[in-house]
Amino acid sequence: MAAAPITYEYSGANKRGQAVKGEISATSILEAKNQLRRQGISAKKVKKLSTPLFGKGAEKIKPMDIAVVSRQLATMLSAGVTLIQSIDMIAQGHNNVKMRKMLAEISNEVKAGNPLSNSLRKHPDQFDDLYCDLVETGEQSGALETIYDRIAIYKEKAEALKSKIKKAMFYPIAVITVAFIVTTILLIFVVPQFEEIFSSFGAELPAFTQFVLVISRFMQDNGLFVGAGLFVAGYLFKRAHKKSKKLRDSVDAKLLKIPVIGEILKKASVARFTRTLSTTFAAGVPLISALDSAAGAAGNAIFRDAILFVKKEVAGGIQMNVAMRSTGVFPEMVVQMIAIGEEAGAVDEMLSKIAFIYEAEVDDLVDGLTSLLEPMIMAVLGVVIGGLIVAMYLPIFEMGNVI
C-alpha cells in the first residue's frame, strides 16, 4: 500500500538564481527534493508543513469549500487546463491544510491512472454519491468540464439555500437563548436582593411579586439541576434523533406544520428536489436514478417518501406529473409545470425554472420572517423583562401609596 502524501514547505532558488519558496506534496522528504530538482529548483530547506492547532489552517473542510473548489475546477477545465494541473493549482493556493492534503491525495490517485470519480469516493464525508455519480457521468461522456459547471451551480445553489434556512432559524433561537439567560440571571442574582428588602416591610406582598419570588427560590435551589437536565435531555434527544429514523421522520413532519417556518421548509424541499433532479437529468443520469438522488437531497422525510413513491410509479410506466399529483405533497403549480415540460420534452429546463422560482420564494420568506419576528421578539422580551421589573417594584409603589 502506497504511503499517504505529506505536504512539505520548501525554500531555495530557481534556475535563474531567484529565491523561491512554497509547498509541495510528496510521500517523503527525499521524493519532495527529487520533485523540486526536476522542476529546476535548488532546495536549501525542505520540512514537513506543521498543522496549526488553531486558526484558519486547522479548519475542517466545509460544504462551501467543496462548492468553491467545484467552481474553480469548472472554470479551469473550461479554459483548457488539464484535470491534474487544475487540482494541483487549487491545492497549492488553498489556505486550509486539510483541503490541501485531500486534494493532493486525489491528484496522486488520478496521476496513478484512477478515474476522478473513484478517487472522490474515497472521501465520502466531502463528496457524496450524487457528486461522484455526476463526475462519473462526465468522465464516461467525455464532457467533464460541462458536468463540473453543472455541479458547481448545484453546490452553490444548495449552499445558498442552506444558508437562508439557517438565517431563518438562527435569529429567533439566538434571541430566545439570550432572553432565557438574562431572565435566569435576574431570577438568581437580582430578585433575591429585592426579597431581602421586602422582608423588612412587614406587609403582605402583591400576588404577582410572590409568584416571581417563588420562581426565584426554585431557580436558586434547583437551577443547576434544571440546567443539567436540559443539557442531558438535549444530548439524549440529539443521540436518539441520529439513531432513530422513526423519530427523524416524526420531527420532519412536525416541522412542516410550524406556521411560516413550515412553509419555508416546504418550499426549500421543493427547491432542492427540482434543483437536484434538473442537474442529474441534464447530466444524462436516467430518470429513476435521478429521482433516487433527489429523494436523498430533499432534506425532509415527507418529501423523501413522496419522491420515492414517484420513482416507483415512474418505473411502472406512470408519467411523473401524474405520480407527483397523487402524492398530495407537491404544489399544483410544480405539477403543472412538470406536465408542460414532459409534453415539450424539456423536463430538465422546466425543473431548473421551478428551482429558481422556489429559491427566490424561500429568500423572500426568510426576509419576511426576519422582519416579522423582530417586533414580536422585542415585545416578548419587553413583557418578560418588564414583568420582572414591575413585580419587584409593585411593593414599593404600594408602600408609597399608603404613605
Q: What's the alpha carbon Rg, rounded to whole Å?
A: 30 Å
Write down the secondary-structure element order: EEHEHHHHHHHHHHHHHH
Unreliable spans: 52-58
Helix content: over 70%
Tell me, briefly, the overall form.
flat
Q: Give the total of beta strands.
A: 3
Biggest sheet: strand arrangement = 2-1-3
Question: How far apart are the termini?
Answer: 91 Å
Alpha-beta classification: mainly alpha
Largest sheet report: 3 strands, antiparallel
Mean pLDDT: 82
State which percent range the strand residues make up.
5-15%
Describe, in plain words, how this protein is organized in 3D.
This protein is mainly alpha-helical and 403 residues long. The chain has helices spanning 29-38, 63-78, 83-93, 97-111, 116-121, 129-141, 144-199, 207-243, 245-255, 261-282, 287-297, 301-315, 320-327, 332-344, 347-402, and strands at residues 6-13, 19-26, 42-48. A 3-stranded antiparallel sheet has the order 2-1-3. The chain starts with 5 loop residues before the first strand and ends with a helix. The model is unreliable at 52-58 (pLDDT under 50).
